[in-house]
Amino acid sequence: MLHLANDTLRLDILDPTTEADRLGPRFTGGGFIWQIHDARAGPLLSGPEGPEPHPEPFNGHGLPESFRDRTRAGVRLLWSDDEGLAPGVGLLRRIDGHVTLAEPCVWHLLSKIGALEFRTAHAAAGYACAVTRRIELAGRTVRSVSRITNTGNQPMNFQWFAHPFFALDSNSHLKLTVPSAAKLPADSGFTRRGNIVEPARRYLGKDDGAFTLLELPPAQPLDVQLTHPHLPRGIRFSTGFVPSECPIWVNGFTFSIEPYQTLKLAPGTTQTWTLTYEFGAARSDGSPIA
User: Fold this and answer.
1) 33-51: buried (b, 16+ CB within 10 Å) or exposed (e) per residue?
2) Rounded to an integer, what distance in angstroms lies between the CA atom of residue 22 and that of residue 57?
3) How far apart are CA 236 and CA 213, in angstroms?
4) How would you classify residue 72: left for phi > 0, otherwise alpha for psi between -120 and 50, otherwise beta?
5) Rounded CA gap, 221 and 162, in Å?
6) Helix, strand, or coil here: 86?
7) What is the SS3 assignment for 151?
8) Residue 284, phi then psi, degrees to nearest 5
9) pLDDT beyond 80 at 171
10) What are the C-alpha distances in Å from 244 to residues 215, 216, 241?
């Protein structure tokens, strides 16, 4: 693992070269935050498989980010026949109906004060791009800054999304504070009281859970607050962009809120965006919140 650390937090970040076995066709390799440790409370993040030390690469762990190879409706993105480009991931191939990572992109690492920056450039399926991912740590704030440039000669129309995995307590307890104008479908597996969204019941294990689309107020970046079993003030999660859609889901181990972004890059153009995680202080003894 690579690390960023200060007096209160330590970030474990995957080395995309030496830990390639943790990567698959879904998440970007550079800047993949696997775990965040609080000096008092211990690990703060989870994953769909919970405490499993080597989860399936498709499931992941921590704070991964992803460029989608197809829309939710199944429309393929950045593909030519059975070859595809996943920006920040690599060359994809479709074999017997399954998407596989045929050739991961090569990342170059630059270490800065309070930050790690990952850079790659690669091409496939008639598309080409350069991607930079920078992870910053300042106090108890973690910031992910991404930049992508279309270096090819044809437009790139695709989707990107954050996929954070926040830890739950042993009873799968969670409270998510959302904007007052946000909307939640009926029978979603979640309940809402005022601005608070909670799981409708306790979910158990990896395969028991709920998924729905949270409808956010138009033309507003995401800005939500969620509880954490070891942080009395919880975690504030925000984006520097207006999401195109925002799924939320939960199982017995983790909760995720996934701000999506639809990107349309003409040749030679660049787009940059930011995610910010603000971690409240832990209890002085590191004990769980009652």
Assistant:
1) bbbbbbeebeebbbbbbbe
2) 5
3) 20
4) alpha
5) 13
6) strand
7) coil
8) -60, -30
9) no
10) 10, 9, 9
Tokens of 103: 């050739």
Residue that the structure tokens 């979640």 belong to: 190
Give the Å distances, CA to CA, from 93 to 79, 97, 102, 127, 189: 9, 10, 6, 14, 35
Q: Are 134 and 31 in contact (CB under 8 A)?
A: yes
Tokens read off for 39: 């000096």
Give the pLDDT confidence of 78-133 residue by residue, as tens digits: 999 999 999 999 999 998 878 899 999 999 999 989 999 999 999 999 999 999 99
Instruction: Report the side by side order of strands in the sheet with 260-265.
Output: 65-68, 156-162, 260-265
Rounded to 5°, the CA angle 153-156-159 comes to 165
Query: Cα separation of 119 and 133, whole Å?
Result: 6
- Count CB-CB contacts under 10 A for residue 108: 11
**pTM for the predicted model, two decimal places:** 0.94
Residue 211, token pair as written in the block? 């998924």
Going from the N-terminus, what domains does the chain have, and what CATH number goes with each?
2-68+106-279 (2.70.98.10)
Chain Cα centroid distance, residue 196: 22
Cβ(141)–Cβ(276) below 8 Å: yes
* Integer Cα distance of 156 and 129 in angstroms: 9
What lies within 8 Å, CB to CB, of 164 at 6+ separation is 45, 62, 63, 64, 237, 256, 257, 258, 277
